[in-house]
Amino acid sequence: xxxxxxxxxxxxxxxxxxxxxxxxxxxxxxxxxxxxxxxxxxxxxxxxxxxxxxxxxxxxxxxxxxxxxxxxxxxxxxxxxxxxxxxxxxxxxxxxxxxxxxxxxxxxxxxxxxxxxxxxxxxxxxxxxxxxxxxxxxxxxxxxxxxxxxxxxxxxxxxxxxxxxxxxxxxxxxxxxxxxxxxxxxxxxxxxxxxxxxxxxxxxxxxxxxxxxxxxxxxxxxxxxxxxxxxxxxxxxxxxxxxxxxxxxxxxxxxxxxxxxxxxxxxxxxxxxxxxxxxxxxxxxxxxxxxxxxxxxxxxxxxxx
Length: 305
Known about the structure:
Ribosomal Protein S5, domain 2, five-stranded mixed beta sheet, 59% helix, signal, DUF1002 domain-containing protein, coiled coil, DUF1002
């Protein structure tokens, strides 16, 4: 009886302690819910895919955290934009949408897929790599879709948002090669059976080496790519290897300067490495559990043999 009474007293004590902490947190944060306008960069830009129905658009608005439409600039990305920026099919249905919030120089580029299960071909780091190639950095980008899609219209929407901003027009050649990079990354993940993180690691490490070595010829680009494939123990078909060489040779010919975004490339590398290490750790843990139960079963069998 006494034990039961003590148990309920302890539970009640924890409950009131938790309530007190929650009340204090709410009180201290009560004034932080007011949205303010960044007068340097303007309002965040929310870009909606043109195929969204009114109900889906409202759903996406909520997913992207838009509480007051007056506190963002809302635009729509269309098939014409898809054709303009990445030479896509202008008749495509476009659902994936994005919110872009510009930040101070040096803040970094952060991608947040609000609906990761609905963005089927592109990871956060794939978006980040493509956007850095296109010349976009120092921003928070939220991506969402109400239905499963590849994720390309969100990329086009981000380009359009920057072009409609004040003094931020993007180089169309750079956006096209950035889309080629994203398409090749998706191809490698699908046809070569590579994990998306491994594809991102490969592209990021190649860019970092290009920034360090500043290759002047296609042969030097080829050597960097071959070295990274060997280092990362990635095997590609001759066709995909050539596509990779042609892609980075095109970037070299366009004078895309990865030296300017080395810090953000390092951030991508660290994120990928952390995820790979976590995955390896998880597999090791699961293997240990599996081994334990196998040994346990064998021990039980031994008792009856």
